[in-house]
Design a protein that fits this description.
The chain is globular and about 55 Å long. It has 3 helices and 3 strands, in the order E-E-E-H-H-H. A hairpin with a 7-residue loop joins strand 1 and strand 2. Strands 1-2-3 form a 3-stranded antiparallel β-sheet, with helices on one face. By secondary structure, the chain is α+β, with helices and mostly antiparallel strands. The protein has one domain.
């Protein structure tokens, strides 16, 4: 049972990760902006009740079917807007992973390995699988 005390002064960061994304402009301010966010996870023991509290990114349960070995988690470098751009470049424009790497480096100074790009594309496909099934059923 938790005592609901404020733990902000006892929690300490124990891990963290970066997320890279693209913000799309508007008609008033066109263009693309690259963002880099540092997220931290905290842990600490409540001085009142002794309960150990620890934050961590959400992880989707494993899928043992078609998506075996394709994990989905909030602990990721590439987040939705950038991932959607990678999907568009890879599947609509049919650009190779190597050329996607060159594009990101040339235009944004973002150096991603081919494995990170490929992992993002696979996670995006798994995330969209239920939507695809719904479209087929409709």
């Amino acid at each position: 049972m938790a005592c609901n005390r404020d733990l902000s002064n006892v929690e300490k960061a124990y891990t963290g990760f970066y997320q890279v994304d693209i913000e799309f402009g508007s008609t008033d301010a066109p263009g693309l902006t690259m963002t880099n966010t540092h997220l931290r996870d905290y842990a600490g023991d409540c001085p009142g009740c002794g309960l150990h509290n620890q934050t961590e990114p959400h992880r989707a349960p494993p899928d043992r079917g078609h998506w075996d070995n394709v994990g989905m988690t909030e602990w990721r470098l590439i987040v939705p807007s950038l991932a959607s751009m990678l999907v568009y470049m890879a599947y609509n424009m049919r650009i190779t992973r190597r050329l996607i790497r060159l594009y990101l480096d040339d235009f944004f100074g973002l150096q991603l390995c081919t494995g990170s790009i490929n992992k993002s594309l696979r996670e995006s496909a798994r995330a969209m699988a239920p939507v695809e099934q719904q479209i087929v059923e409709d």
